[in-house]
Specification:
By secondary structure, the chain is of the alpha/beta class. About 40% of the residues lie in helices and about 15% in strands. The chain folds into 2 domains: about 180 residues, Rossmann fold; about 90 residues, Putative methyltransferase TM0872, insert domain (DNA polymerase, domain 1), CATH 1.10.150. The structure holds S-adenosylmethionine.
């Protein structure tokens, strides 16, 4: 029997971040560039950023990419009225190669709210879903399979490296034990509870849930997010026309570090922003997820 879709296009709700900075940056392109120019939205998600751009610039065309089939479906629906100017493609941005050069690229990294908010996607430790975490649930290894496959030491290193979790050894030992015992069938909330148990009692009730870092590490590993970003940083400047702009919004320091160094060291581009642009308090109060967003922009020489 075909599976029911977990997110319908009508409930794909995601608030786009740093819109004002993005729109201001795009407005710096010349009229010539904006006239029928191509913008590549490498992480189209629910189509929020793209819809703003299509609305504001009636001449531009957009190619939108996403590795999540649900996001593809949602953005196609949201951008239906612009369909003659939009081409949406399901792919990892690191595997893409455009036929035409673009005047701007946007990559708004990480996960979208609907991915986090649907228990069955397995990203959230506050909801009880299967331990999945794949951005594309048709491809690759789930978080449960990853934990079962790795040796305890490899798992501890991964949690330390991608989650900056100082209790990585203790947590790796515990979650290997539980996953083996349950033969990989464990729910996210139950795993989060076990991770919290690795913390001393006083540290279990801080501002950040004790499972946050471990869940971040597993998600990054399952989706090979940093590998994709590194590859993207190598190929994206070649997708741009001269003077074209590359915008990258990252959500944690591992991503931001890669972007910062690539923008500084790549001879094909020059930095537009030396320091990352961050959300104003007004945006953070409306959308707490924007708190950790960092936008860096560079220009193709
Ligand atoms: C933060 S959301 C983008 C939201 C979008 N900018 C908007 O305004 O609606 C990030 C999206 O990027 C996608 N994504 C993450 N890594 C990707 C990759 N390597 N290739 C393609 N899509 C990716 C995710 O599936 C998710 O839909």
């Amino acid at each position: 029997m075909p599976k029911e879709p977990l997110i319908t296009t009508s409930n794909f709700q995601h608030i786009s971040v740093l819109n004002d900075y993005l729109l201001e940056s795009i407005s710096n392109l010349s009229t010539n560039q904006l006239n029928q120019g191509l913008i590549i939205d490498a992480t189209i998600g629910g189509g929020g950023h793209s819809s703003l751009l299509l609305e504001k610039y009636p001449q531009i065309k957009i190619i939108g990419l996403d590795r999540d089939p649900t996001a593809i479906e949602a953005s196609k629906k949201r951008l239906l009225r612009f369909s003659d100017r939009v081409n949406i493609i399901e792919t990892n941005f690191s595997d893409f190669s455009p036929k035409e050069k673009a005047v701007a690229i946007i990559a708004d990294l990480g996960v979208s709210s609907p991915q986090l908010d649907i228990a069955e996607r397995g990203f959230s430790f506050q909801l009880n879903g299967p331990l999945d975490m794949r951005m594309n649930q048709e491809k690759g290894e789930t978080a449960a399979e990853l934990i079962l496959r790795l040796e305890e030491e490899e798992l501890a290193n991964l949690i330390y490296l991608y989650g900056n979790e100082r209790l990585s050894r203790k947590i790796a030992k515990k979650i290997k034990y539980i996953l083996n015992k349950e033969e990989g069938v464990i729910k996210t909330k139950d795993l989060a509870y076990s991770i919290a148990g690795c913390y001393p009692p006083k540290a279990r009730y801080g501002r950040i849930h004790p499972a946050t870092r471990t869940f971040q590490a597993l998600r990054i590993a399952v989706n090979q997010e940093l590998d994709s970003l590194e590859k993207f940083l190598k190929i994206a400047p070649d997708w741009l026309k001269s003077e074209g702009l590359l915008h990258i919004i990252s959500f944690h320091s591992l991503e931001d570090r890669l972007v910062k160094h690539a923008f500084k060291d790549d001879s094909r581009i020059q930095r537009v922003t030396r320091k990352p642009l961050i959300a104003h308090t007004g945006e953070i109060s409306k959308n707490p997820r924007s708190r950790s967003a960092k936008l860096r922009i560079c220009r193709k020489k």
